[in-house]
Amino acid sequence: MTRTIEVVHSTNKKPKPNADNIAFGKYFSDHMFVMDYSEEKGWYDPRIVPYAPITLEPSAMIFHYGQTVFEGLKAYRTPDDRILLFRPEKNFRRLNLSSERISIPAIDEELALVALKKLIEVEKEWVPALEGNSLYIRPFIIATEPNINLTPANSYQFMMILSPVGSYYKEGIKPVGIYVEDEYTRAVKGGTGTAKTAGNYAAAYKAQERATEKGYSQVLWLDGVEKKFIEEVGSMNVFFKVNGEVITPELNGSILEGVTRMSIIELLKDWGVPVIERRISLEEIYQAYDRGELEEAFGTGTAAVISPVGELNWGQRNMVINNREMGELSRKLYDTLTGIQTGKIEDRYNWTVEV
Amino acid sequence: MTRTIEVVHSTNKKPKPNADNIAFGKYFSDHMFVMDYSEEKGWYDPRIVPYAPITLEPSAMIFHYGQTVFEGLKAYRTPDDRILLFRPEKNFRRLNLSSERISIPAIDEELALVALKKLIEVEKEWVPALEGNSLYIRPFIIATEPNINLTPANSYQFMMILSPVGSYYKEGIKPVGIYVEDEYTRAVKGGTGTAKTAGNYAAAYKAQERATEKGYSQVLWLDGVEKKFIEEVGSMNVFFKVNGEVITPELNGSILEGVTRMSIIELLKDWGVPVIERRISLEEIYQAYDRGELEEAFGTGTAAVISPVGELNWGQRNMVINNREMGELSRKLYDTLTGIQTGKIEDRYNWTVEV
Ligand SMILES: Cc1ncc(COP(=O)(O)O)c(C=O)c1O
Ligand SMILES: Cc1ncc(COP(=O)(O)O)c(C=O)c1O
């Protein structure tokens, strides 16, 4: 890594939002990281600059053909005032995998990590101190070429913006009700489900709307082919504990490989808890429930870390899981992961990266 | 329709591109139509303004979650110097159907048509006179709210931009070679295939890349579930003439309903040519080919109108259709449709709208 990252400091510092009650996704720090791509130069001019609007031609490809990918990770402040990132190299790896699917040129993952650390150093005051709060990091790439011909762009911009966020669980962890979506499809083999790309997300709003109307907080997605096999929950991966064994859908070509998911699998293996990645039918989960063997269910993702499922609804069939309480294993996973992320528990896995 | 559309004239007129050789999608006229949406006001402030860049926050939802839809249609100059649109109300209808799928608020379709006519009046010099050239119209909507929370936006912008385009067939119509894609999937039932939304298009680049590498010009898409049934060709609908009968995939929840497709079906019915919309397996087409009954195949869309298929390749199985020549029916459809569009043939169907 030889490239230097220029820093232009902002002279107009914004007030920080009230730490007790930060709405997700609305506040952004004073600086951002930007890097451009052209066919001739490749990725060039990595720089940290004041947070500012983007100006693009109306014909910029991002507005027409969806060539864009993103990531989401967090920086945490430890009790002894250090700042930690959680497995950030996995996010840049995944960003490049997403880009590959969407025909976007790969970035230098090491440079991206160096840049992120530098950006957070510049913005260290924006990493909240209040327990449960954190600094959400949003790397993203957009196709900027002004051309509505249907072909991959020859110019892109890679950016990282930072947003302080409140605790996902301000009132303690409450298991949520989930609604099985059997009409809308999130992703299908051969599609873009394995990539974190914009089109997957807006496409999911209709199903979320329906879940909300019916009084559930999120959607359980089934496979797009047979509508029988479990894929994800909202925008989280999903795990079930059945008769002492933990199962989660395998990486089948349509689900996203979560960093939280991979960390949980590693933790469970380390703890000697049986954990299996395989195809899981919804029917199988109902049968385990009927036999009294469905012990816990939870979603996993950067935002919530662990989101216990208290109820699962599939038309006439309804399950109340673990009496709508957070399970013992879910709790242990949550405490361990958040403990490592915030530096309260020793990081035996070398997952955290100090800024 | 009572709303007035304000017009701000550009003082800086651009030169027009050389009519003999206009690259698709790179040139834009001097003005554009813009209209904003907010939750409080609904769609407001419809206006024609000088063509100019868009400025958005880096957190604008369009950059993250893909809430965007678009359309594509053309304005044609007739030999007696009138300007015609081809079934533009169908495009605004489809825009709203796409928006519905992507949780974008509907626009007033009548207002959009009035606005488009007014915009083209202002830009009438941009409608090319050279035979085969036309003015491509790109209406699109983007989510503008600066918020990375995963939820439908509360602000949007609707725009229409105009791009002069050259003839699709500068060297006469040549049937193309098509490659059957059996790994990547364009769309699946319950997904977004019926909507003209950005995410569908970037997702198709990988397959197009592979087709190009193998020497074919476009991809034939199969259904996402069984990978057996024919859906579309590139970004066109597809028709086959088998033993005197014309067949085309039915509107099955994953293909886009093309305006060219619907016009062709209406023409054929009017001509007394049997035309059937139904599920079509690729196997069936090969069998018809083996029996010597596959007479013609063609894609249909606004850009090419009719694109005859001269070769269809599916791994080891290869078909050369109609001796790589344009079929009689394809030719008649092409001549009739382009004749109506450009005012050279009487429009008995009331399809054209004069500006
Ligand atoms: C579709 C989808 N699945 C799963 C996840 C969970 O991934 P991670 O644990 O890396 O946050 C996310 C969120 O990033 C997601 O968008
Ligand atoms: C996916 C797809 N299918 C088919 C079509 C053809 O539609 P139309 O005839 O309205 O141009 C288009 C182009 O608009 C398209 O994008």
Automatic annotation (TrEMBL), chains A, B:
Its EC number is 2.6.1.42. Signal peptide: none annotated. Transmembrane segments: none annotated. Its cofactor is pyridoxal 5'-phosphate. It catalyses: L-isoleucine + 2-oxoglutarate = (S)-3-methyl-2-oxopentanoate + L-glutamate; L-leucine + 2-oxoglutarate = 4-methyl-2-oxopentanoate + L-glutamate; L-valine + 2-oxoglutarate = 3-methyl-2-oxobutanoate + L-glutamate. The keyword Transferase applies. GO terms for molecular function: branched-chain-amino-acid transaminase activity. Pfam families: Aminotran_4. The keyword Transferase applies. Keywords: Amino-acid biosynthesis, Aminotransferase, Branched-chain amino acid biosynthesis, Pyridoxal phosphate, Transferase. Pathway: Amino-acid biosynthesis; L-leucine biosynthesis; L-leucine from 3-methyl-2-oxobutanoate: step 4/4; Amino-acid biosynthesis; L-isoleucine biosynthesis; L-isoleucine from 2-oxobutanoate: step 4/4; Amino-acid biosynthesis; L-valine biosynthesis; L-valine from pyruvate: step 4/4. Belongs to the class-IV pyridoxal-phosphate-dependent aminotransferase family. This is Branched-chain-amino-acid aminotransferase.
